[in-house]
Amino acid sequence: MNILPLSEAIACHVHDGDSIALEGFTHLIPFAAGHEIIRQQRRNLHLIRMTPDLIYDQLIGMGCAARLTFSWGGNPGVGSLHRLRDAVENSWPHPLTLTEHTHAEMAVAYQAGAGGLPCGIMRRYSTTDLINVPHAPVAATQCPFTGDPLTMVPAINPDVTILHAQQVDATGNVLIRGILGASKEAAMAAHCLLVTVEEQVERFDADMNAVVLPAWLISAVSIIPGGAYPSYAQGSYPRDNRFYLEWDDIARERNTFLDWMTKHVLAVRTHREQLRLLGVLA
Amino acid sequence: MSAAEYSADEIMTVAAARQLANGAVCFVGIGLPSAACNLARLTHAPDLVLIYESGTVGTRPSVLPLSIGDGELAETATAVIPLPEIFTHYLQRGRVDVGFLGAAQIDRYANLNSTVIGNYPHPRVRLPGAGGAPEIATYAREVLIIMKQSARSFVERLDFRTSCGYLEGRGARRALRCPGRGPQAVITDFGVLRPHPETDELQLAALYPGVTLDAVREATGWPLQAAAHVDVLPPPAPTDLACLRDLHARTRAAHSTPVRIAPAAITR
Predict the structure, then answer these.
(1) Are A124 and B135 in contact (CB under 8 A)?
(2) What is the CATH number of the domain that holds B40?
(3) Of B103, B220, B228, B240, which one has the fewest beta carbons inside 10 Å?
(4) Cα dihedral angle (A85, A89, A92, A98), rounded to 10 degrees?
(5) How far apart are CA A78 and CA B257, in angstroms?
(6) To the nearest whole angstrom, how far is the Cα of A28 from the nearest Cα of chain B?
(7) CB contacts, 8 Å: A130 with chain B
(8) Which of A104, A234, A238 is closest, CB to CB, to B132?
(9) Residues of A in contact with B254 (CB under 8 A)
(10) For testing the chain A interface, which of B38, B62, B66 should be mutated: the one with the most A CBs within 10 Å?
């Protein structure tokens, strides 16, 4: 079992230029890990996530990213990710190369990566203009058995996938409860898997079909209560929808964004300090 | 009931909800579609099966989610499954009756843009992008679209085709043998547009009380044709309005509740 402080886990396993996938769909987004990457000033990262969410808005705005692979880049139910938009529309703080999918394509690409296939397969030819953009990440083909039209999506195999989960047990296995998104596939597709968890327990109280990642798949586990905040951990704390609404104003302008990040991420040493500063510790 | 007694958003949401039949399996987009689908479930369609792309199947939230993966959706779902299965086992396999979508731009053949305004490499406005919409638009047996109508959003030419409606029209979609029939109604803040059965071009099919044909045409970027008979829809029923307002009030209260992370979780 390899339980490490988060700062060490990131220092050992996330390098400049790596492709990294911080997954979790609305739920269990590993914010603490993302903030540690920002504090350690990683550069030229290839960020991969179905829904970039606030965490990639922050990584992009802080200059950590050179490339983004994604399938829906908004603040859900609120509007734009302003830092993502500023990077795409104005190259601030750096130009950002986009590899853009649909959700279904990206799910298939993770599944292919998880299963050791070079590409994933979808029925039919795509009818979206995404296939016409430069370096479009899909190709048309036919089924060799039926002749049916198919769309091929190259596998995604991140250098590092980072997840947040509810529990790690005494031997280092990790339990995920609730909405999964494509996190299991992203985990199995990765060359290196890092996990942050809410808590450590002796053993899980879970159904035998529960989603458990065996310890030997995981390079490091860090115990970070509240590590998904302002996303959520089912059973521990809800999504802070109010913060997602407030982020719209914080991130709209470069200076308010930088002020917020400096105060709440760069100037604190740990996620717990940040939670205390934000007043969310009960 | 006079026009002043309900908002354009409200009559649009109620009109959209009424399009949904009880028992249908519905793939729900975030925002206005989510409000309409849940209103339908709470009123005339209690057995509507709502699927959100986060992996929640048969969810029955008491408040509207802000995102498509709020905990409320998981806690009230029949099943919470991995997201890839939503798109393969359910959507691609043909198990979704209705896809309910919004977008930033729509054209006369109900093709949708949610990707960019301007050109793709150097957009004037970078929009969120495709999400689940292109496959929903392809595979759902039918598609409903809800959008606020203006000449800027109902355009002669899309800047980018994210999701297909009837493509170039006149049977182009049928020629591709798309599994789904395509968009059956576009519900706006003026009324309802439906595709012409042969040309596939969207026509005005219904208006809300007090809305004029000229006003809708002014809010459309192409020369909008009216169907042979244009219905005037009734104002929203007081029970529908009350239900929708309660839903929004519960949602506002839930979304403004401060989150506190318990010290027990922190010290453990």
Answers:
(1) no
(2) 3.40.1080.10
(3) B228
(4) 70
(5) 17
(6) 10
(7) 115, 130, 134, 162
(8) A104
(9) 241
(10) B66
Would the CB atoms of A280 and B54 count as touching at under 8 Å? no
Please confirm whether the linkage preceding B263 is cis (ω < 30° from 0).
no
A102 touches B: beta carbon within 8 Å: yes
Q: Is residue A54 part of a domain?
A: no
Q: Smallest Cα–Cα separation from A153: which of A205, A107, A208, A87?
A: A107
Locate B167 and state its tokens. Answer: 């493509």
Catalytic residue among B10, B53, B135, B201: B53
Residues A179 and A258 occupy one common structural domain: yes
Q: The domain that contains A265 carries what CATH number?
A: 3.40.1080.10
Q: Is B53 a catalytic residue?
A: yes
Q: Residue B83: closest CA among chain A residues belongs to which residue? A: A181
Query: B28, B89, B126, B168: best mutation site toward chain A, by most A Cβ within 10 Å?
Result: B126
Report yes or no: A155 at the B interface, CB cutoff 8 Å: no
Quick: pLDDT tens for A164-222.
Answer: 999 999 999 999 999 999 999 999 999 999 999 999 999 999 999 999 999 999 999 99
Please indicate, yes or no, if residue A110 is contained in any of the structural domains.
yes
Total count of domains within chain B: 1
Per the CB < 8 Å rule, is A181 touching B30?
Answer: no
Domain presence at residue A186: yes
On chain A, the residues whose CB falls within 8 A of the CB of B55 are: 25, 179-181
Count of positions (residues) in chain A: 282
| A63 in a structural domain | no
Q: Domain of A149?
A: 103-154
Does residue B263 have a pLDDT over 80? no
Among A137, A154, A171, which residue terminates a domain? A154
B20: DSSP letter: P
Tell me how far CA of residue A245 lies from CA of A35, A86, B237, B259, in angstroms.
Answer: 20, 19, 31, 13
Q: What is the ipTM of this complex?
A: 0.96
Q: Tens of pLDDT along A24-61?
A: 999 999 999 999 999 999 999 999 999 999 999 999 99
Q: What is the dihedral of CA B236, B240, B245, B251, to 10 degrees?
A: -130
Where does a domain end: A154, A178, A195? A154
CA dihedral over A234, A236, A238, A244, signed as positive or negative? negative
Residues 11-40 of A with CB under 8 A from B: 25-27
Position B30 confidence tier, pLDDT thresholds 50, 70, 90: confident
